[in-house]
Design brief:
The chain is mostly helical. The protein has 17 helices and no strands. 80% of the residues lie in helices and 0% in strands.
């Protein structure tokens, strides 16, 4: 791995710093909102709606990917960070004043998520310009390690923050993290992507719209001619729906099945994130030794098995161990897939390919969150058990997917 050489690159380190602060802040806000809806409001349905609204803009990732390809990606990231900071402050005020209209909270969450999708598409396409092509896998790995490390630590202490400070303070802390991220990005030298050289004038609205539509069509063609996406994603959609339901119902599970509190919730998801981080650290060691189909298939099947046994856990210790293992296997498989996608796709269309992929993957998760919240009113156990089965099916498909039958070398 090239961690040492990566840390000597100033622009990459600034990018990394902003991502880490932003990830930590988002962790605090999501922790507070989900616990508040699931436990304090005692409404799995409300938690499911919040999760669904938060994930719904992911279906528009293909559009945000196109924007990331025909605008200055760095400026897009700075702009979305600033707007997100403002909206997060507004959300904190709305909750503090206890305004009786949930539609206000849901609307703000929707816009925040939409801005985040635009940021993610731009940052995904921006990263290769900060490192050499041979460093992409390690750059992604280090980014995952750093983000997940910050998320793990934040979640572990976030439960105590939630108990002592309340959700409003956590939202304000998230707003501050967006500001820090924006400041870090402004210190990166201007590096416009090639397509921005031919971007139409902002005054020519008709040409700009035509350019956007053409880019989206081009991206669709490239996406559907990419075997890695065409043969893997359809099987991953049900697994993503299951994962969304489990994620949004975890606070309810901990409260009702394990009789835990906010501190236990923060500890469990924090340790789970630590498991993901360890998986991301280990993943590059396997890429040159084994084919991606065996790695992703076996790791996903092990993830499904851990979730299945987690469903039957009756005490916090075995539940915590199984949850950590589940995230460990997820951390091993995720960087492999995205590194393959970056390595096999031209930078010119990378933003649109990523946006299209996120759109497809996101189709299942908001639906899974909403349906999971409704089903949890009848049988919380069934939601978790069914989730393990769907993830297991995805693992079997990964084993047989021909586009994954390659080694990712550095």
């Amino acid at each position: 791995m090239y961690y040492k050489s990566l840390l000597s690159k100033r622009h990459y380190c600034l990018f990394l710093m902003g991502q880490v602060f932003s990830a930590a802040g988002s962790t605090l806000s999501s922790l507070g909102l989900l616990w508040y809806a699931s436990v304090e409001a005692e409404s799995p349905v409300l938690a499911g709606l919040i999760g669904a609204v938060w994930g719904l803009p992911s279906a528009l990732s293909f559009i945000t990917g196109a924007i990331a390809d025909w605008t200055d990606r760095r400026r897009v990231m700075i702009g979305t960070d600033i707007l997100s900071a403002i909206l997060m402050f507004v959300l904190a005020i709305v909750i503090y004043l206890q305004l009786p209209l949930p539609i206000i909270i849901l609307s703000i969450i929707f816009v925040l998520s939409l801005l985040r999708e635009l940021f993610e598409a731009a940052s995904f396409a921006f990263l290769p310009s900060l490192v050499t092509k041979g460093e992409i896998a390690s750059a992604n790995s280090l980014l995952n390690v750093s983000e997940q490390g910050a998320i793990a630590l934040t979640r572990m202490i976030g439960g105590n923050f939630l108990s002592g400070l309340g959700v409003v303070i956590l939202l304000i802390m998230d707003a501050v993290s967006y500001v820090v991220s924006a400041l870090g990005l402004t210190a990166i030298a201007h590096q416009p992507n090639q397509t921005t050289q031919h971007t139409p004038s902002s005054a020519d609205i008709a040409v700009l719209i035509q350019r956007g539509v053409a880019d989206i069509k081009t991206g669709l063609v490239h996406m559907w001619t990419t075997p890695l996406i065409r043969e893997v994603v359809p099987w991953a959609l049900p697994a993503n729906a299951a994962y969304g339901a489990i994620l949004v119902l975890l606070p309810t599970w901990i409260s009702q099945r394990l009789y835990g509190n906010a501190t236990m919730y923060g500890l469990m998801i924090g340790m789970g994130t630590l498991g993901f981080m360890i998986g991301a650290i280990i993943a590059p060691h396997f890429t040159s030794r084994y084919k991606a189909n065996w790695l992703m298939g076996c790791f996903t099947l092990l993830e499904a098995s851990a979730l299945f046994f987690f469903t039957f856990a009756q005490s916090s210790t075995p539940a915590l161990l199984l949850y950590v293992l589940m995230n460990l296997f997820d951390g091993l498989s995720s960087p492999i897939f995205f590194s393959l996608l970056q390595a096999q796709t031209s930078e010119e269309h990378l933003g649109r390919i990523f946006g299209g992929l996120m759109t497809l993957l996101a189709l299942g998760q908001p639906v899974g969150m909403a349906i999971g919240g409704l089903l949890a009113e009848h049988s919380l156990f069934a939601v978790f058990a069914l989730g393990s089965i769907l993830i297991g099916f995805a693992g079997f498909r990964f084993l047989l997917a021909r586009p994954l039958c390659v080694r990712l070398t550095q």
